[in-house]
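note to self — DONT lose this again. spent like an hour looking for the file last time. sequence + predicted structure for the chain T wanted, 269 res
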Amino acid sequence: MEGLSAQLQAAEGAIRLGAFLIIFAGIALWEYFSPRRPLAATRLERWPGNVGLNIVSNLLLRIAVPLLAVDAALYVEQSKVGLLQWLSLPYWVQFIAAIVLLDCVIYWQHVFFHQVPLLWRLHRVHHTDTGFDATTSLRFHPIEILLSMFIKIFFVVLIGAPVAAVILFEVILNGAALFNHGNIQLPDRVDGLLRKLIVTPDMHRVHHSIRPREYNSNFGFNLSIWDRLFRTYRAQPEEGHDRMTIGQREYQTPEARGLLFMLLLPFRK
């Protein structure tokens, strides 16, 4: 098993990149042929900034953090540390439990990034996008990406998550973020069924509303159970999806689409 884990760890970058490109292309085509609502600005106006920010974040992550979550998971398996390893559970139980527990961690991380003022200064970069499509899922400040990786590494070790589970979790997390930020049309019945298990675009769009009581709800990225369990679930926006305003009230200008604006926003008064 350790040999296979080492091989997976070595291929992690290629696995994640391949999955990302396939899912992104699929969601982008879906948005083009069946959009949920008109965008506040064109793709040409929004995509360069959002994609550029993601490139800067990933470059900084690779330079500043020598070990990633999957490396921590390989250490967990080799050293037999962490809760799931100490319990000596069957591998399939460790695998499923690790994915569910890490998803819960991401939920609470998201809540804290909204509630702690210093963290919100970083996270509001994500919320200043006046549009809502797949590229919104890429719009995170580099410092937030760094903090998120440190949090992830800590909990991978604490939980004792296996390598394969961490890789699959990362793929699911990235894919779910692209999906639930998608400007895509789903029939109401399909949306209602899906959101009993996972976060749908209509569910997550509420989280990007200009209204504080709405953007402080629906924190889940993948499993929808956490918002229901911890009472942060909001079914629909007050103004409806077609009329709701996306973004932050004080940043509704074209300036907010620029890469430099996004990089400097946390340091503004």
